[in-house]
Amino acid sequence: MNKITMLTGLLISSLMINGCSKNDREPVDSGVESQKAFSVVELDDATFDAAIASGVVLVDFWAPWCPPCRKQLPLVDQAASQLEGIARVAKVNVDKGKSTAGKFKVSSIPTLIVFKDGKEVKKFVGVTQPDVLVKAVKAALQ
């Protein structure tokens, strides 16, 4: 295996494990937005603070140009279906919620944060499985 092939493989593996940084902006038509789950609310800088002010909320910071984020979206939908009636689930497109992403030091996406009464309780960076997310939300409810 030559060095270029090996380095390319390492780079792709790193992106899949660690997520995308804000500097990795590659426009991609995801087709994901047409498959929104009714229980996942879209937030932006104007709506974010009020949405997380009370109760427990799981927020997915993502962007449509980020391949790992597109992989994360259906996993968030699965978690949302398990959390229906227990906690709220939302997502923030970092391109539309730059101030909010900056406030919570989101420098790699996907980043998922569990909030309780407006305060960060748990943060996950990179693709995270639904059972891990549900467990974290239920722990925050305790």
Number of domains: 1
* Named CATH topology: Glutaredoxin
Radius of gyration: 15 Å
Beta-strand content bin: 15-25%
Structural class: alpha/beta
Can you give the mean pLDDT? 82
Beta-strand segment tally: 7
**Given this structure, which CATH class is correct?**
Alpha Beta
Task: Just name the CATH architecture.
Answer: 3-Layer(aba) Sandwich
Oligomer: single chain
The SSE order reads HEEHEHEHEEEH
What is the distance, rounded to the nearest whole angstrom, between the alpha carbons of the first and last residues?
A: 51 Å
Fourth-tier CATH superfamily name: Glutaredoxin
What about the largest sheet? 5 strands, mixed
Level of helix content?
25-40%
List descriptors.
globular; 39% helix; 5 helices; Glutaredoxin; alpha/beta; 142 residues; disordered N terminus
Describe this structure as you would to a colleague:
- By secondary structure, the chain is of the alpha/beta class.
- The chain has a single domain (3-141), classed as Glutaredoxin.
- 39% of the residues lie in helices and 24% in strands.
- It has helices at 3-18, 48-52, 67-83, 98-103, 130-141, and strands spanning 20-21, 40-43, 56-62, 88-93, 108-109, 111-116, 119-125.
- The strands form two sheets. The chain has a five-stranded mixed sheet.
- The model is unreliable at 2-18 and 22-38 (pLDDT under 50).
